[in-house]
Prior knowledge:
Elements: E1 2-6, E2 27-28, H1 30-38, H2 46-55, E3 59-63, E4 71-73, H3 88-91, H4 94-100, E5 106-110, E6 113-122, H5 127-137, E7 145-148, E8 156-164, H6 165-177, H7 179-182, E9 186-190, E10 193-199, H8 209-219, E11 226-230, E12 233-239, H9 243-253
Parallel strand pairs: 1-3, 2-4
Antiparallel strand pairs: 3-4, 5-10, 6-8, 6-9, 7-8, 10-12, 11-12
Helix pairs in contact: 1-2, 5-6, 8-9
Amino acid sequence: MCEIYTDVDGLFSADPRIVPKAHRLRTLTQEETLEMAAHGAKILHLRAVEFARRYGVPLHVRSSFSEKNGTWISDSPANPELKGLVPDAALKSPEENAMEKPVISGIAHDRSQDKITVTGVPNSPGVAARVFAVVAEVGANIDMIVQNLPISDPTKANITFTLPDGDAQKALDALEAHHDEIGFDELRYNPNIGKLSLVGVGMRTNPGVSARLFSALSDAGINIDLISTSEIRISVVTRLDDLDRAVKAVHTAFGLDASETEAVVYGGTGR
Protein backbone atom coordinates (compact mmCIF):
# COMPACT_ATOMS: atom_id res chain seq x y z
CA MET A 1 0.00 0.00 0.00
CA CYS A 2 1.01 3.65 -0.32
CA GLU A 3 0.47 6.03 2.58
CA ILE A 4 0.16 9.71 1.71
CA TYR A 5 0.63 12.08 4.63
CA THR A 6 -0.94 15.52 4.78
CA ASP A 7 -2.07 18.05 7.41
CA VAL A 8 -5.65 16.76 7.77
CA ASP A 9 -7.05 13.39 8.78
CA GLY A 10 -8.04 12.26 5.29
CA LEU A 11 -10.47 13.18 2.54
CA PHE A 12 -13.72 14.87 3.51
CA SER A 13 -17.23 14.96 2.06
CA ALA A 14 -16.63 18.63 1.10
CA ASP A 15 -14.03 21.33 1.71
CA PRO A 16 -14.21 21.89 5.51
CA ARG A 17 -13.32 25.55 5.02
CA ILE A 18 -16.68 25.96 3.26
CA VAL A 19 -18.68 23.25 5.06
CA PRO A 20 -17.59 23.01 8.72
CA LYS A 21 -19.83 19.93 9.15
CA ALA A 22 -18.05 17.97 6.40
CA HIS A 23 -17.28 14.44 7.59
CA ARG A 24 -14.20 12.30 7.02
CA LEU A 25 -14.62 9.63 4.38
CA ARG A 26 -13.48 6.27 5.74
CA THR A 27 -13.28 4.56 2.34
CA LEU A 28 -13.53 5.62 -1.30
CA THR A 29 -13.27 3.71 -4.55
CA GLN A 30 -10.50 4.76 -6.91
CA GLU A 31 -13.17 5.68 -9.45
CA GLU A 32 -14.80 8.12 -7.01
CA THR A 33 -11.41 9.54 -6.03
CA LEU A 34 -10.49 10.11 -9.69
CA GLU A 35 -13.72 12.05 -10.22
CA MET A 36 -13.20 14.16 -7.08
CA ALA A 37 -9.53 14.88 -7.88
CA ALA A 38 -10.41 15.81 -11.47
CA HIS A 39 -13.17 18.18 -10.40
CA GLY A 40 -11.59 20.26 -7.66
CA ALA A 41 -10.60 18.17 -4.62
CA LYS A 42 -6.96 19.09 -3.91
CA ILE A 43 -5.63 16.58 -1.36
CA LEU A 44 -4.59 14.03 -4.00
CA HIS A 45 -3.03 14.65 -7.38
CA LEU A 46 -4.97 13.02 -10.21
CA ARG A 47 -1.89 11.16 -11.51
CA ALA A 48 -1.28 9.57 -8.10
CA VAL A 49 -4.75 8.02 -8.18
CA GLU A 50 -4.32 6.92 -11.80
CA PHE A 51 -1.08 5.05 -11.00
CA ALA A 52 -2.56 3.44 -7.88
CA ARG A 53 -5.57 2.24 -9.86
CA ARG A 54 -3.45 0.89 -12.72
CA TYR A 55 -1.28 -1.22 -10.43
CA GLY A 56 -3.87 -2.16 -7.79
CA VAL A 57 -2.17 -0.28 -4.95
CA PRO A 58 -4.40 0.80 -2.04
CA LEU A 59 -3.87 4.42 -0.95
CA HIS A 60 -4.15 5.57 2.66
CA VAL A 61 -4.49 9.36 3.02
CA ARG A 62 -3.82 10.35 6.62
CA SER A 63 -2.38 13.08 8.82
CA SER A 64 1.27 13.49 9.74
CA PHE A 65 0.13 14.89 13.10
CA SER A 66 -2.15 12.15 14.47
CA GLU A 67 -2.44 8.36 14.71
CA LYS A 68 -5.99 8.29 13.33
CA ASN A 69 -6.94 6.11 10.41
CA GLY A 70 -7.43 8.36 7.41
CA THR A 71 -9.23 7.62 4.14
CA TRP A 72 -8.60 4.29 2.41
CA ILE A 73 -8.82 4.36 -1.39
CA SER A 74 -8.97 1.03 -3.16
CA ASP A 75 -10.94 -1.10 -5.62
CA SER A 76 -9.19 -4.46 -5.39
CA PRO A 77 -5.84 -4.54 -3.55
CA ALA A 78 -3.31 -6.71 -5.35
CA ASN A 79 -1.63 -7.92 -2.15
CA PRO A 80 -3.71 -10.38 -0.06
CA GLU A 81 -1.29 -9.87 2.85
CA LEU A 82 -2.99 -6.51 3.44
CA LYS A 83 -5.93 -8.38 5.00
CA GLY A 84 -6.08 -7.16 8.58
CA LEU A 85 -4.17 -3.95 7.81
CA VAL A 86 -6.68 -2.46 5.38
CA PRO A 87 -10.33 -2.01 6.46
CA ASP A 88 -12.65 -4.71 5.09
CA ALA A 89 -14.56 -2.10 3.06
CA ALA A 90 -11.38 -1.28 1.16
CA LEU A 91 -10.93 -4.95 0.23
CA LYS A 92 -14.37 -5.26 -1.36
CA SER A 93 -15.21 -4.67 -4.98
CA PRO A 94 -16.76 -1.32 -6.00
CA GLU A 95 -20.07 -3.15 -6.56
CA GLU A 96 -20.07 -4.58 -3.02
CA ASN A 97 -19.16 -1.22 -1.55
CA ALA A 98 -21.88 0.54 -3.51
CA MET A 99 -24.52 -1.57 -1.74
CA GLU A 100 -23.35 -0.44 1.70
CA LYS A 101 -22.16 3.13 1.15
CA PRO A 102 -24.26 6.29 1.02
CA VAL A 103 -25.54 7.23 -2.43
CA ILE A 104 -23.24 10.28 -2.48
CA SER A 105 -19.67 10.15 -1.15
CA GLY A 106 -18.65 13.76 -1.49
CA ILE A 107 -18.82 17.14 -3.18
CA ALA A 108 -15.91 18.74 -5.04
CA HIS A 109 -15.78 22.32 -6.24
CA ASP A 110 -13.57 24.27 -8.62
CA ARG A 111 -13.10 28.05 -8.84
CA SER A 112 -10.37 27.92 -11.48
CA GLN A 113 -12.48 27.65 -14.64
CA ASP A 114 -13.75 30.19 -17.19
CA LYS A 115 -16.57 29.93 -19.71
CA ILE A 116 -16.45 30.79 -23.42
CA THR A 117 -19.48 30.83 -25.73
CA VAL A 118 -19.03 30.87 -29.50
CA THR A 119 -22.30 32.26 -30.85
CA GLY A 120 -23.83 31.93 -34.28
CA VAL A 121 -21.62 29.20 -35.73
CA PRO A 122 -23.03 27.49 -38.86
CA ASN A 123 -25.09 24.45 -37.90
CA SER A 124 -23.36 22.06 -40.26
CA PRO A 125 -21.04 19.01 -39.97
CA GLY A 126 -17.42 19.74 -39.13
CA VAL A 127 -17.85 23.20 -37.61
CA ALA A 128 -17.67 22.05 -33.98
CA ALA A 129 -14.67 19.91 -34.89
CA ARG A 130 -12.92 22.97 -36.30
CA VAL A 131 -13.72 25.08 -33.21
CA PHE A 132 -12.14 22.54 -30.88
CA ALA A 133 -9.23 21.83 -33.22
CA VAL A 134 -8.33 25.53 -33.04
CA VAL A 135 -8.56 25.44 -29.23
CA ALA A 136 -6.49 22.25 -29.07
CA GLU A 137 -3.75 23.76 -31.23
CA VAL A 138 -2.93 26.26 -28.45
CA GLY A 139 -2.92 23.55 -25.77
CA ALA A 140 -6.13 24.61 -24.02
CA ASN A 141 -7.78 21.83 -22.02
CA ILE A 142 -11.57 21.65 -22.40
CA ASP A 143 -13.79 20.46 -19.56
CA MET A 144 -17.56 20.85 -20.12
CA ILE A 145 -19.23 21.38 -23.53
CA VAL A 146 -22.79 22.32 -24.44
CA GLN A 147 -24.16 23.03 -27.93
CA ASN A 148 -27.64 24.35 -28.58
CA LEU A 149 -29.68 25.75 -31.48
CA PRO A 150 -31.32 29.17 -31.17
CA ILE A 151 -35.08 28.86 -31.76
CA SER A 152 -35.01 31.94 -33.97
CA ASP A 153 -32.50 30.49 -36.46
CA PRO A 154 -31.96 26.69 -36.66
CA THR A 155 -29.20 27.21 -39.24
CA LYS A 156 -26.97 28.60 -36.47
CA ALA A 157 -25.69 27.09 -33.23
CA ASN A 158 -24.09 28.30 -30.02
CA ILE A 159 -21.21 26.31 -28.51
CA THR A 160 -20.32 26.86 -24.85
CA PHE A 161 -17.36 25.28 -23.08
CA THR A 162 -15.37 25.65 -19.89
CA LEU A 163 -11.60 25.51 -19.50
CA PRO A 164 -8.91 26.40 -16.92
CA ASP A 165 -8.60 30.15 -16.46
CA GLY A 166 -4.96 30.03 -17.51
CA ASP A 167 -5.99 28.70 -20.93
CA ALA A 168 -8.83 31.12 -21.61
CA GLN A 169 -7.00 34.04 -23.20
CA LYS A 170 -4.99 31.95 -25.65
CA ALA A 171 -8.19 30.10 -26.65
CA LEU A 172 -9.97 33.41 -27.24
CA ASP A 173 -7.07 34.76 -29.29
CA ALA A 174 -6.90 31.58 -31.40
CA LEU A 175 -10.65 31.58 -32.11
CA GLU A 176 -10.60 35.27 -33.01
CA ALA A 177 -7.74 34.63 -35.44
CA HIS A 178 -9.93 32.01 -37.20
CA HIS A 179 -13.11 34.10 -37.13
CA ASP A 180 -13.65 34.21 -40.88
CA GLU A 181 -12.82 30.53 -41.36
CA ILE A 182 -15.25 29.32 -38.67
CA GLY A 183 -17.90 31.94 -39.42
CA PHE A 184 -19.19 32.65 -35.91
CA ASP A 185 -20.94 35.86 -34.82
CA GLU A 186 -19.12 36.68 -31.58
CA LEU A 187 -17.22 35.30 -28.59
CA ARG A 188 -18.61 35.71 -25.09
CA TYR A 189 -16.25 35.28 -22.17
CA ASN A 190 -17.24 34.80 -18.51
CA PRO A 191 -14.54 34.29 -15.86
CA ASN A 192 -16.98 34.50 -12.93
CA ILE A 193 -18.10 30.88 -12.76
CA GLY A 194 -17.69 28.03 -10.29
CA LYS A 195 -18.21 24.29 -10.72
CA LEU A 196 -19.82 21.96 -8.19
CA SER A 197 -19.50 18.19 -8.65
CA LEU A 198 -21.54 15.58 -6.80
CA VAL A 199 -19.71 12.21 -6.69
CA GLY A 200 -20.85 8.76 -5.60
CA VAL A 201 -20.97 5.21 -6.98
CA GLY A 202 -24.43 4.86 -5.44
CA MET A 203 -26.05 7.13 -7.99
CA ARG A 204 -25.71 4.34 -10.59
CA THR A 205 -28.58 2.48 -8.95
CA ASN A 206 -30.50 5.22 -7.13
CA PRO A 207 -33.00 7.31 -9.11
CA GLY A 208 -33.81 10.83 -8.04
CA VAL A 209 -30.27 12.09 -7.38
CA SER A 210 -30.53 14.75 -10.09
CA ALA A 211 -33.94 15.87 -8.84
CA ARG A 212 -32.65 16.28 -5.28
CA LEU A 213 -29.57 18.17 -6.47
CA PHE A 214 -31.55 20.63 -8.57
CA SER A 215 -34.20 21.04 -5.85
CA ALA A 216 -31.49 21.92 -3.31
CA LEU A 217 -30.00 24.52 -5.64
CA SER A 218 -33.44 25.91 -6.45
CA ASP A 219 -34.37 26.23 -2.78
CA ALA A 220 -31.12 28.14 -2.21
CA GLY A 221 -31.96 30.50 -5.10
CA ILE A 222 -28.99 29.37 -7.19
CA ASN A 223 -29.21 29.34 -10.98
CA ILE A 224 -27.41 26.73 -13.14
CA ASP A 225 -25.50 27.65 -16.31
CA LEU A 226 -24.24 24.23 -17.48
CA ILE A 227 -24.72 20.57 -16.56
CA SER A 228 -22.41 17.61 -17.21
CA THR A 229 -22.75 14.00 -16.04
CA SER A 230 -20.96 10.67 -15.87
CA GLU A 231 -22.03 7.37 -14.33
CA ILE A 232 -21.01 8.48 -10.84
CA ARG A 233 -20.87 12.28 -11.12
CA ILE A 234 -23.09 15.27 -11.80
CA SER A 235 -21.36 18.62 -12.33
CA VAL A 236 -23.07 22.00 -12.55
CA VAL A 237 -21.71 25.46 -13.28
CA THR A 238 -23.03 28.41 -11.27
CA ARG A 239 -22.06 32.03 -10.70
CA LEU A 240 -18.79 32.20 -8.75
CA ASP A 241 -20.45 34.25 -6.00
CA ASP A 242 -23.01 31.46 -5.47
CA LEU A 243 -20.54 28.56 -5.29
CA ASP A 244 -20.00 28.41 -1.53
CA ARG A 245 -23.75 28.57 -0.85
CA ALA A 246 -24.32 25.87 -3.44
CA VAL A 247 -21.81 23.50 -1.81
CA LYS A 248 -23.38 24.02 1.64
CA ALA A 249 -26.94 23.57 0.36
CA VAL A 250 -26.17 20.36 -1.55
CA HIS A 251 -24.09 18.91 1.27
CA THR A 252 -27.03 19.33 3.66
CA ALA A 253 -29.62 18.13 1.14
CA PHE A 254 -27.84 14.78 0.74
CA GLY A 255 -27.46 14.22 4.48
CA LEU A 256 -23.69 14.57 4.48
CA ASP A 257 -23.44 16.97 7.44
CA ALA A 258 -21.60 15.47 10.43
CA SER A 259 -23.09 15.87 13.91
CA GLU A 260 -19.85 17.41 15.14
CA THR A 261 -16.79 19.01 13.59
CA GLU A 262 -14.39 16.34 12.31
CA ALA A 263 -12.01 18.41 10.19
CA VAL A 264 -8.87 19.56 11.97
CA VAL A 265 -6.08 21.29 10.04
CA TYR A 266 -2.97 20.58 12.11
CA GLY A 267 -0.68 22.75 9.99
CA GLY A 268 -0.51 24.33 6.56
CA THR A 269 -3.63 24.88 4.49
CA GLY A 270 -5.53 21.57 4.59
CA ARG A 271 -5.05 21.03 0.86
